[in-house]
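Appendix B, record 7
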Amino acid sequence: MRDILSQLAAVLEARKLASSEQSYVASLYAGGLDVILKKVGEEAAETIIAAKGHDRQALVREIADLWFHCLVLLAQQGLHPDAVLAELERRAGTSGLTEKAARGKLA
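Structure tokens (predicted):
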């Protein structure tokens, strides 16, 4: 999994230098944070609709779109997917209730 995420991260980083007329990702970067966030929101909504429709193939496609656009957001913010993977690894073996309670104390 890390391999494909690292490959995508490298492509997304390279697209920062591409023409927005020739690259979809470059056009997202050119639109700025609000455009990227809107796209993430749209893909999240489409994921929900696919899940509610009980269409497993559509759900997989929509989650792929959502993850992709989240990777674009990470790149735009100067973050690598490894940061998210490290956070997931940190949480592994910890109850979700315990983890959420700990976050509440830190906030």
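Remarks on this record: The chain has a mean pLDDT of 92. The longest helix spans residues 56-76.
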